[in-house]
Amino acid sequence: xxxxxxxxxxxxxxxxxxxxxxxxxxxxxxxxxxxxxxxxxxxxxxxxxxxxxxxxxxxxxxxxxxxxxxxxxxxxxxxxxxxxxxxxxxxxxxxxxxxxxxxxxxxxxxxxxxxxxxxxxxxxxxxxxxxxxxxxxxxxxxxxxxxxxxxxxxxxxxxxxxxxxxxxxxxxxxxxxxxxxxxxxxxxxxxxxxxxxxxxxxxxxxxxxxxxxxxxxxxxxxxxxxxxxxxxxxxxxxxxxxxxxxxxxxxxxxxxxxxxxxxxxxxxxxxxxxxxxxxxxxxxxxxxxxxxxxxxxxxxxxxxxxxxxxxxxxxxxxxxxxxxxxxxxxxxxxxxxxxxxxxxxxxxxxxxxxxxxxxxxxxx
Length: 364
Prior knowledge:
Layout: E1 2-6, E2 24-28, H1 31-34, H2 37-47, E3 52-53, E4 66-70, H3 75-80, H4 84-96, H5 98-113, E5 117-118, H6 124-140, H7 153-164, E6 172-177, H8 184-195, E7 201-205, H9 208-212, H10 217-229, H11 236-240, H12 242-250, E8 255-262, H13 265-271, E9 283-288, E10 301-304, H14 310-322, H15 329-342, H16 346-355
Parallel strand pairs: 1-2, 1-4, 2-3, 4-5, 6-9, 6-10, 7-8, 8-9
Helix pairs in contact: 2-6, 4-5, 7-8, 10-12, 14-16
């Protein structure tokens, strides 16, 4: 996404959003904005943990998402390139030619016609908070990524969706348990993607076990949860008392929370406590290898993820090893022997299959 700040000194380009290194591209023109509103927007986003790219040199274009800020300029002037923009475009045409500048004009017309935010010096702080809230909301709508090819997932999603029953106003906490590599995380991601549009506030926290074992593990987990659920500024005192901050948020709003790979009940106590914390209609999903860490006072529905059936396992292996849904006759017997080694675990099937992808002889 790009937060665009346009002023009368030049033309603002629209670099595409990219999520691998940056969350937001803060694009602007004019030194007068760099040290004023652009600086303030940048610092406000940074405080919320948003990775902000402030200049547009060297960016590749990608997916567009524009939040225009019209800084001391009329949006209609931007759209039609009138007044301060007219002379600059005429000068650009002399240097770069009509063909190039016509594309710039089209881009400017698009930005000018996009519903944006008109700067008011007396309300700058309010505008910045609104921009931060909008950015955080858009970031939270980004679904989590799934493997390109899955087998047996749809039926599992349907089973758990029945347990979650999003039409009910009750608070549902579903514990998904099963051995490592059986597909719990994939199921949790698919459920999150299916449910995310129903909830204004949502959070998917991966690797709970790993993060918990690190420095300030539980505190770090609490801060991640608070940050993803809240679009408002949380005070230092509230952050220091993570449980109070979490309860204050989840008691007022319907939330969707996924905690992936929990291995200790203390992690649950620190993050989701018990059902009385939550506003009606909230949904919490917990995945774990250990059924015993799912306390009855919190979890009211259980789902065990079992190994894939033989035909499903063969299909998944065949896709990763041969890029087809069933093995050729040449490799059928060997593929069936490999099935017996994996125990129907999707992760093992993917690893074995991917390793054998470039092998085309029985001996290999």
